[in-house]
Amino acid sequence: MSYTQGIRRNWQQFALQLLTVFAVGLTIGAERNVVPILGRDVLGVESVLVIGSFVVSFGFVKALLNLYGGKWSETYGRKPILVAGWVVALPIPVILAFAPNWWWITLGNVLLGVNQGLAWSMSVNAKIDLAGSDARGFAVGLDEAFGYGGVAVGAWVTGVIAARYSLRPEPFYFLAGVVLLALLVSVLFVDETLPYARAEADDQATEEDADLPFGAVLKRATYGDRTLFAAAQAGSVEKFVDALVWIAYPLYLTAAGLSTAQVGVIVGVYGGVWGVLQLYTGRLADRVGRRPPVITGMFVAGGGVFLTGLVDGYWPWVGTAALTGVGMALLYPNLITVVGDAAHPSWRATGLGVYRMWRDAGYGFGAILIGVTADLLSIQAAFSLVAAAMFVSGAITFAWMRETRPDPESDPPSESGSTTPTDTR
After folding, report:
1. What's the N-to-C CA distance of the chain in angstroms?
2. Per-domain residue ranges for the chain?
3. pLDDT at 365 over 70
4. Cα 125 vs. chain centroid, distance in angstroms?
């Protein structure tokens, strides 16, 4: 069998991978609106830090599974790790629907972290395997568009269900259907894509950094290369924004008088704008480079968060949610693409796993920061602090990140996206 890369050539498998990542987004989106309100109004949790504990558990577990999922997929393949992610998700709807206290919700989010760390990691790696370097940005943009489109739809649907029926168990019947369908599709129809990455690696076998051990990849993708460090810290800090939306938006907006359904629309607008625009921002980075949209996105998303804490009213909050989503659409897929460019195909999945580890650890760090700030000061202060973190991180990215977009006129070895000597520290 010939493992020739290209989205059009491999469109059937690429489309199936888009379906699985949409299901991943639906799974996490089902919690975005309902669960924090459930903690406050049904389970009687008053501390924002305690409510945020379910995001802390999710973030750190997902970070760890991102790291090892990428490593395992280099040995066992992408498909077995994808299937394992969906098997782990099976108990989540039951736990959320019938949890007797908040700590069961936190346990459920440990499983959600495993699911997201394995299933989403494998989906994006598979798309990069299938697409090739010329369409890498577009492939990642499509992945994130469908994933966060799923987040938006999941938040909206569960908000509507909760408003019509109750906070539980009805919204989680929807979640159970999503998990079962995704598992069946992954087992029965998804093919293995690791051979595409290996074929690409064979074409670039002369690269001096082609065979790096796990420890060397971890070091290089964390701090050994200034561009990859810039991507890792930006990825971690931008997750503060998503943690804020997950924890603080439902609490803050319902306390201001909005209904659960209205909050679902606002959270859905944020995720929907983020998701849809990635159809264009990933392709944009293939044309203008990765660095401009990443840096612009950090400041736009930070500005959207800051304005959310200042304005008042349903429609102003819809507007600031949309602005935040624009910023996330600019930065999010292109940070992944920077790492995909800079990694050799033979260790790209592991390198992406390291990046995704630091990125999703931002959920945990951000949830702790948001919870402590809200409990000691106010939720509005948490909005300002997250915005400030985005501005500082954007400045670091501006100073240290170098452009990684492959030069179509260069020789094939340079198209692997490995960093130049000026990028390595």
Report:
1. 41
2. 11-423
3. yes
4. 13
**pLDDT tens per residue, range 257-311:** 999 889 989 998 998 899 889 889 988 888 899 999 999 999 999 999 999 999 9
Mean pLDDT of 38-57: 89
Q: Are the C-beta atoms of residues 151 and 271 closer than 8 Å to each other?
A: yes
| Cα 76 from Cα 71, distance rounded (Å) | 9
Nearest CA to 353 out of 73, 99, 29, 154 is that of 73
Burial letters 132-155, b for 16+ CB under 10 A, else e: bbebbbbbbbbbbbbbbbbbbbbb
CATH number among 1.20.1250.20, 3.40.50.2300, 1.25.40.880, 3.20.10.10, domain 11-423: 1.20.1250.20
Angle between helices 34-41 and 11-32 (to 10 degrees): 20
pLDDT tens for 366-376 read 999 999 999 99
Torsion angle, CA of 145/148/154/160, rounded to 10 degrees?
-90
Q: What is the distance between the alpha carbons of residues 118 and 138, in angstroms, rounded to a whole number?
A: 22
Tokens of 235: 């990825």
Q: What 8-state DSSP symbol labels residue 209? A: T
Q: Three-class SS of residue 232?
A: helix
How many angstroms separate the CA atoms of 347 and 419, rounded? 14
Alpha carbon dihedral 300, 306, 308, 309, in 10-degree steps, equals 180
- Apex 314 CA angle, 310 and 319, nearest 5: 65
Residue whose structure tokens are 């460090």? 229
**Closest to 215 measured CA to CA, from 350, 349, 357:** 350
Instruction: Quote the CA–CA distance of 352 and 316 in Å, as a whole number.
Output: 37
